[in-house]
Design a protein that fits this description.
By secondary structure, the protein is mostly helical. The chain folds into 2 domains: about 160 residues, no CATH class; about 325 residues, no CATH class. Helices cover about 70% and strands about 0% of the residues.
Length: about 650
Amino acid sequence: MDSEKRHHSVRHGIGTFFAFLIALPSRFTAWLCDSFVGRCFHAYDKSTELLGESRLFRRFRESRVYRAASPMRYRVASALTNGPLSMLFTRILDILRYTETRIYGVMFGTFGLYTILVYVVRHFAFAAAGNDLGSLITGVATLFCSLLLLLSRKPLCVTLQESRILGFLLYRTAGLRRHPAGKHVRHTINPTVAFLLGSALGITGFFMQPLYLLLGILGIVLFFLLLFSPELCLFSAIAFAPFLIFVERPSILLCTVVLIGIVGYLLKVLLGKRLFSIEPLDFAVLFLTLSYLLSTAFTYGGEASVLRALACATLLGGGYFLTVNLFTSRALIIRAVNTLIISGTVVALIGLLQQFTGHAVADWLDSAAYDYISGRITSVFENPNILAVYLIMILPFVTVMLLRRGSPLRRLSAFFVFALFMAAIVYTWSRGAWIGVIASFALLMFACSPATIYLLLPVAAGIPLLLRWAASPIADRLSSAASLADSSVSYRFHLWRGTLDMIGDHILGGIGVGEEAFAAVYPYYAPAGIETARHAHNLYLEHLAEFGVVGLLLLLLFIFLFFQRTLTHQHEEENTEIRLFSVAAGCSVFAVLVNGLSDHVFYNSRIFFLFFVVVGIAVALARVGRTEHERSQPIEDNGGENYTIEVDIA
């Protein structure tokens, strides 16, 4: 009997000990949150409240400008909505919407026939030199597509709404308003007008390429579509940003799309169809945007540096503020995350195809030291390090997709995508990205379950031993990151030393934005042999060199407020799905910032834009989470407190 009591006592003691070990990380986390540092990182609501009650905001709300803003907005909105140009434009849109689809088939069929006829006449009658076969192909393709349009007698808007693909893109994604099928429109396009219009467009093939004419018409339609739907504009920029390498000037095209989205959003705000709210992190992003604009007056890089600064200001402000203010529901945010993942999957597949077909690039590799590496993949980017930054920025979202509950098929597909990303990151052979992945995974696991610290500690302790004794190429490549004998590490070390010398002479105002400004000043401070460096290979040194000490302080303030915003939200969020995506967004930004210790991650404009889109997703998740929480609470429990400062003047 005594032995049974002792056995029971031992089992109880062991169970108590393990329960204590399991609860210890959570208690430590709670203690950390209650500490001074923890309170600082969980005090975002207090910061927002203080900002709203500050003297500056009180004076702004009491100013004549603020009081006059609402009636002025009403008059401008009324003029835009009820003016003759607006009414004419609305009438034209109604005519185009409610014209039967088969009428468009007549127009494009006629255009195709005349395009073919023009090609035949130019080829046989005039024997035109260099008669382009593309004109014939364009005419045949247009004629074939018109046959599909001729089959429908429904109005164009109904045909689009019933289409699965176009309906999803235009109405569910873009948020365009659906139009009733039975609406009566006094005038529509008749077949005779469609025939004459198609004939006129086809005859222009004598003077210009028919394909360019079709692309011009498509461009006009897309312009107004993006202008009317800033959400579609933002989705398009997120989806196609990685693939803009196939156009001549990707930065200009991306900036153009973002500017259209900004103009469309501001028009929606003016008409009272969208809201605009502001909080402390928004001010930090606004100050960063202004620092890029102000740097145009103090740059050593000339016109190229000025254009680079203007592009950065557009992509930074547009990427962040459009994301925060347009993605106002959980469905839109998840759709944006899915867009990121789908684009990233295509990019990873292209990179792996490049690796397994023997087209990996060896330009960024010391072949003498790493003879076991055939090359590094670049996919749709021109640099393996930039590709690695792009992949590690999306990887936390893929990991969360893997952790979410769902059908076995969905989880299997998520695991497949996760494996693709990991393989592509490995074949970039970017050590900074690998370290960023390790750091973001550790943060993700700890944020999801503090008890995983018992797994992270032995893994962290075993990494040095693994790197010392393992003979795998990955371990050898990663261990070389701590050795000055490595040519890349030595290059960065001497580059940073020269950059610090340059910063010492330009500590206040910086040298200006972009590689042109860096290349104009750095050679005077460069150690022998590395005078041709285009940037500092370090995010923080590069920012300090470009903007001076004030610019670096603004960047650090932005980073602090971002993590304060994210941690405050995760501490309060009760919805598991929103919290998981918020953790993923925070880990994504953390991975990029860790990688920024060894690379200038903002070097590529597309990465720069997508980084602030991810930041905007994190903030949008926090706002959506708070909104859903406040809606679920009784009004009296809210205490009348609202920590988002609304600037809506409707």
